[in-house]
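Model it.
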Amino acid sequence: AVRKPRSCAYARSAAAMPPSPSEQRRRRSAPRLLLGLAPALLCAALLPKLSGLFASIDRAPRETFCSLRSPCSSAQVRSAGRIGASAAALAGAQRRAASPLRLSAKSLADLEVVIVGAGPSGLLLAHKLLDAGARVELLEGRADPRSLDGGTEGRAYALGLGIRGRSAIRTVDDALWEAIKPSGFGSERFQLHPTPTLKIELRSPDDGKGLEPSLLIYQSDLCGALLTELEARHAAGGRLKIAFKVRVESVDARTGIVVVQDTGGGGRRELAPAGLVAGCDGVNSIVRDAVQKACEGFSVTKAPLPGNLKVIRFAKMPEALDFDAVHAIPGSGGNSIFLEPTARGVCALITWRDAAPVAAGGAGAKEGDAAPVSLGDLTDAEAVRDALAKAFPLVADVVDLDAGRQFLGQNLTRAATIRCNTYHSARAVLLGDAAHSSGGASGQGCNAALMDAVALVDCLVDGANEGVDAALLAYSQQRVPEGHALLDLSLGPSDEVGAFKKALFGLSTLVGNVLSRFGLGTPPIQTLATTTLTPFAEMRREREFFFGEFPTEAEFKKEVAVLAAASK
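Modeled.
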């Protein structure tokens, strides 16, 4: 049978086909293989459980924002709950089938907030603050994401919104989530292609246990939908100001004064002092610089990740790949490509290292042709097309001259991780990548940033009678452990734990992925992060055997409190 091309932009389902003879043989041999490997698989699968048990001995009880060990239903997600709930409150919420995220009820009518950065976390934060009665001024250096010149500038890549991101958005209301969904593509399939002929299913719809699938959506589309709803709900109320194409030059964390430069020709101006300045401005955050100046003892570690990144948008999924799955494809020479289906075609993230050359002459290159060059050194669209087709044969049918032009038209991106020891000082607070960036290694950056926005407003509302200082302290104490844990889980065990434990962790992950298909073992970290609300800090502590010790909740709280006292 000839397989007809299918565009993932519109094809949401496909007719089931009978398994091929090779697939039937593979299915018959799988039980025998598992039976032979059962003892080793069982030992490796039990390692995370045992290490978590040993790590918990003599540890003081700790509160977490969610102790739900199984995925939450959509009804639970829509129900009221809270990040940072006490043990008693959490138990009551679970009895009511409540989510750990809740709608803020009290008013912040006296609070004026400047939000630097109109990405997903900044826009959700604006929604939450305005719903709670605050006044908001939103500043963004890029163009409006809905405009012709602002749709892909710094927003070209696709995001995956799992249960954490969906839950955070739904704390505003279900209507906001429903307004976003049409701009995305639902998928819970993730496949690895080590070779052009070998496919490994790393995640399937069964892993979601009936949950709504992850929503794969371009950042520009997510921001556009959040912004459209924000204006529809609050533009006429007089408490919302939005400015695009403005560059924030300086922030004073102690006074709340922000100085901006209008890149469109409006000149330099100083804003009125704000009660709170929220830094949703990414890895190179200027608000974080202000926190560092105001807080004695503040530390930030910025570490570049190896490799380079560019994004290409394809009209459809390559013919050789399932149209409704996410695909990770290692290529020749140390290159790799990551493809995500969206509502508007396919987002392809291409990564390479400068030390990994590709033949500039393409598949027909011969000895004596042009010397091998890095992908980043190519300057001709045809050469880029040929090089990508050679490095990634599975996507060759969709790599054309337009793909080459897209590649050349982008600035090079180099990802970096961020780790801070606190997320606030005086009147300034950090969210998302400004506070904790994993460099895209886990695919949870946006989800965690959206959770930050909800947590911050919850802390502000709960501490409305105690002042902003107490609310920001509670926010940092709650979110710093999550940020540190997410970074650890994203990067895997460090060299400090030794090669043996790193290898053992890899084996345990592989075995867990296999056994989880049969309802056994511990699901991979990525699956837990995407389909459960288990705190990252809890996941990290359960893996201390592999990763090393992780501070207790009390230790995190103490350090953050000391830093807050020193900055006053």
